């Protein structure tokens, strides 16, 4: 216990110190929200990765999908690295940075407002962000608290309040820069921590070959592969189609999440984008790939009573804590700090995104405020959002993966397609953006009420994909934006360079 407490104290002190040291960068709205657009490749890449992967992935997704699909769940981690990180940086990174700077846009709702000359779109996007980021925040608390109860036997309420208070302190002090510097420190902990945990868990199950052999003896209990042996160590697992839904939601979803795309707004320069692409992809391979690979061995703990509810059903969120409970204290301490790092970085990005969107895109839209006033309101809203998410986290409506599925489905379903087309396609119309907003929120809410798509994960993936069809179809049949305005918006991608050439006597003599 002493080892675990020492780890936590060191971790908390470092977080607060970073908040204090970076507070000078948070004296303006631009500095507080984007760090003055001066974050280098390492800070941005680690900020992207740590915002991506939290207790939701390590505890919720790795536990649930590892138990359901076995080793094939690793495909979700590979998808996160290739589609959610590598391609996201290649496709969105540079164009997002250039266009948002050209439009002087600081948030995703602000981008929609200025890209499509519509204040109503900006307000609608801000409301969607606020409403659907909160359940995601609650799922982060839920995952972390389960691990704390396993390691320290601390009440759930205490875990949530302490975590929220610490996050609140360093984000309020240092804003975006405090968040990404902390993300860098937390990312290093995550890289080493997940590697150590995988080795320890496999070793505790007799080594890699023995663990695979034991896992291969389990029969599939899914309807599509009922009774099949070896399904949990097969290439695509017992249920490839539903696994594909997980890959799409958790990988493509990042392209439309405000807290993820916002990292591209703040990156420093062209060189940083290229380096950040490589760093972010490597980070995702190790952390996401490692988490899902570890979760793939969760079925080896199916006899453990800790992972079962009172009615005998599997408590998916308890699987990873059960896997870790038998590790040495020093490793449990590392795991707690690992998941705390991942969760606090995600939480800080979420509340910073929420507060900046509501302040700049809602309140400032209806009421003019000076810069100092905006900063004060943003900090106050940060505290408010953290308190609100704590209240919701005290009684979360469902288990972690489903809670995140609803949130990502609505956010990415609404924003991904119009943001992507808005960066690349001049013919994208305002009406198509409205259609995608309505479809993203509508499908998510209706599915929550009527469950016409049984899995919220698959519903979220479907919502994102349908948006990619809705935007071009509606754009082709609705009035286009003013041509001259569109050309001005896209002119940021074109830079004219004038080269002055001096008269050269050498050249003249050569011609003769």
What characteristics describe this protein?
Sodium/glucose cotransporter; mainly alpha; 74% helix; 0% strand; 20 helices; 512 residues; disordered C terminus; globular
Describe this structure in words.
With 512 residues, this protein is mainly α. It has one domain (2-15, 39-511): Sodium/glucose cotransporter (Up-down Bundle). 74% of the residues lie in helices and 0% in strands. It contains 20 helices and no strands. Helix 5 (74-102) packs parallel to helix 10 (240-252) and helix 8 crosses helix 12. It is globular, with a radius of gyration of 24 Å. The protein starts with a helix and ends with a helix. Residues 503-512 have low confidence and may be disordered.
Largest sheet: none
Q: Which spans of ≥5 residues are poorly predicted at pLDDT below 50? A: 503-512
Query: Which architecture name does CATH use?
Result: Up-down Bundle
Q: N-to-C SSE series?
A: HHHHHHHHHHHHHHHHHHHH
Count of extended strands: 0
Count of discrete domains: 1
Assign the structural class, choosing from mainly alpha, mainly beta, alpha/beta, alpha+beta, or little secondary structure. mainly alpha
Briefly, what CATH class? Mainly Alpha
Taking all Cα atoms into account, the compactness measure Rg is: 24 Å
Span between N and C termini?
A: 88 Å
How large is the count of helical segments? 20
The helix content is: over 70%
The backbone outline, from C-alpha atoms, is globular
- The CATH topology is what? Sodium/glucose cotransporter
Mean pLDDT: 81
**Beta-strand residue percentage:** under 5%
Which homologous superfamily in CATH is the superfamily? Answer: Sodium/glucose cotransporter
